[in-house]
Amino acid sequence: MDVDIWAWVGDTQRQLQEAGDAGLAIALGDLPAQAYEGRYAQLDVVAPAVAGQAETLELPWLEFYARYWHLVGRIGDRAQGAVALGDAEELLAFAQREDVRDCPSALAAVEALAVAQANADGPGHAADRLRLVGEALSGVEPGALPFCGLTTQYVMALLDSGRPGEAVAYAESAIERLRAADNDASWELAAAAARALLAADRAEDALGALEAASGLKPDDPINRPHREGVLRALVLGTLGRTSEAVEALPDLDVVGDHPHSFVEWSRAVHVLAGSSQIANTWQLGRVLRQWIDYFAMMGGYRARVELALIAGDLAIARQGVWQARYLADIAESGLAELKEEQVGELPARIAKLRRDADATTPPEAPGPLAERVGIFDAADGSKADPERWVEWLTPLAGDDLEGTRRLTTTLGFLGYPSRGADIYWTMMVEGESAPGTPDDEDIAILANLLIEARQDERLEQFAARLPEGQRHLTLARLHRARERWEETLAEAEQALAAGAGLDARRLLSGSAQRLDQNTKGAQAIREVLDSPELEDEDVWRMIVMASSVEDWETVRLGAARLRMPVEGDSGPVEQEMGLIRVILPAPDGSQRQVISVRTGPATARLAMPQPPGMEFNAGDVVVFDPQLLEPVPDGAKEREEFIPPFAAVRMLRPGGYTSWFFDGAAPSEHDWAEFNEVLAERGWPMWVYSDENYTVSHPTSGDRLPGVFGWVAVPPEVGPTEVDALLDDATERWVHPLAWLDLAREVGIEVERHERIVKEYGL
User: Fold this and answer.
1) Which of 210, 238, 470, 728 sits in a 20 to 30 Å window from 170, CA-based?
2) Rounded to a whole number, what is the distance in angstroms from the first to the last CA of the chain?
């Protein structure tokens, strides 16, 4: 997007603020940052809300803007494919409406659809992408808003259609046209040109193109560093410059958060895996297996097959024969989701992987077959290679119960739960020696494997064979995994009634909490509070639910079980137990950390005043989840200063406080201390939101003065006139006056004076 669209965004924000829609104005400006910075939980809430408000306000450009950035957050770094195609097609149709098509960013919908198609199956959609993007580019000049983005997609479509030479020529021609128009290419376009050069067996030129692009501005500045590192590593690795490539390659803990780079990073690792500088381990195999599953869920069909083949080759290099064969099966099954005429060399690569697996000898087992379970149990878990143990335990599958248990759980751990489920199903359900009633442990193992493999129908068939208690318990586990809370609660209650025990109670209490049936959930745990099998986590959940319904007797019983001292024998638990940070949601979808006073095991009173428009304020009492969100620091000084953070669960009792804003030049330390003391005497919470960088303008000299702004919160019995009078008395002797314009307007006292202060000091 260029200045036209950003100018429109700024104008729209001002109009919304003037109309009283400050929250919508703020959210509008933050959507691109949410998409690029990976704040997807926030984006997935805020963007649809903005689009809905825009539709209500009959602002189609605003609706398009919100829908576009939401889609970018899905198809960009998250690399969603087929699951986003429908929304991308709908956005393009929306952009072609008469009241939207003149929007400066309307052509971005074409680019978005091309990206979604490339994510799903780049070669399969290549012809459609070339037609779609080519038509859009026909009327776009090099200096126009969509030129670089559309050109990048055209180059990538040429690459996916197997025409790297044409892709190079097109990219270089576009870059020259931009230079002739006194414009630079985007970094993304330059990177596409480098990829085309690499595909055309011109790796040296690709490296030169990357180096020449170092000063270009990216469309996505947040994700450029790791994307550039991955591409550079691939090019350097192709050139045989291994040490430089390894140095350029971003770490797995960086790339692991960016699905857009999964395939290219894996290609780079594949190129470099033969060197001693890249560790080709079972951990790498497990990560690649997770990525394969990710693309299966997101409809990244081509990426899924490509990753399976890369992972298979790497498994062969580790002598992981069983894994290579299974990955070949995954790749072959993925061919059915690609356009048949565009599968290219994939069948030949799959066949080669199978031949390589047949020609590879697995590592020698550590002992006789009869002793392997014992050797497995005695192995050092931090050093053992689970991939090899799958190979060594497989001969025991179906014949040896303990060996089968270890084999299938290891398969599940490595990301192959469906394979483990097949083995266990044969043994527990279909085998000649299948038990009439499986052991509880075997039921749990098979159920977990089926749940992880998303074989829900098969799990239901298995549950139907079980005794009543285990049947309902197994179905409750399935519903919990799929977040069907009402069904979880119903099945857990039936399981408990049939004698299923503590696991049923845990499922019951957890689902009851989700459904806001806190009394029922707390009671399920309270009934067995003396059980030695009960864990602290169970007790804390009970305390949170009991606090939510102000069942203080149960809270005290739970605290006693945890050996946590609580004052009093009855009535509300209200005592000061130190400061904590309570994490609460803000209206724009972000989160706020609010300093609070802990008043009970799971309750706190907010101590920081909040701006108007928030759904909470100082004086409110909230229930929080007592699970720490950050680890306690190791250092003594850091521990002493550490204020533990906890997630808010619900509002318990609103305090009814009202906040008033103040702003101005900072007073002397003495005056500020007196000001704080006056407010503290009245119990009015105050919080300064400005930092040391905040300055205001001297009204006569124009010099910068240290500034201060914040909020004062007052309880419901204190009226605005009383607040105005106190602030006036407390600050009347200050060298520079303080302004509280909103409060002055509310009470109608000295409004002009406060307006003058705001203007003279540039507040």
Assistant:
1) 238
2) 32
